[in-house]
Amino acid sequence: MELTLNINGRDHRLSLDPRTTLLDALRDHIGLTGSKKGCDQGQCGACTVHLEGRRVLACLTLAATVQGRPVTTVEGLAHGEALHPMQAAFITHDAFQCGYCTPGQLMSAVACVHEGHARNDDAIREYMSGNLCRCGAYPKIVAAIRDAAPQMAPKTGRV
Amino acid sequence: MRPFRYEHATDRAQALQLATTPTAAAAAAHVAAPVQYLAGGTTLIDLMKIDVMRPEVLVDINALAGQHGEIRADDAGLRLGALVRMADAAAHPAVLRDYPAIAQSLQLAASPQLRNMASLGGNVLQRTRCNYFRDVTYAACNKRSPGSGCAAMEGVNRRLAVLGVSDRCIANYPGDFANALAALGAAVDVEGPKGRRVMAFEDLHRLPGETPHVETNLAPGELITGFSVPAGPWTRRSLYLKIRDRQSYEFALASAAVALDLDGGVVREARVGLGGLSAKPWRSHEAEAALRGKPLTEASAQAAAEAAFAKAVVHGETRFKPELGRRTLVRALLQCAAMEI
Question: N or C: fewer beta carbons within 10 Å in chain B?
Answer without folding.
Answer: C
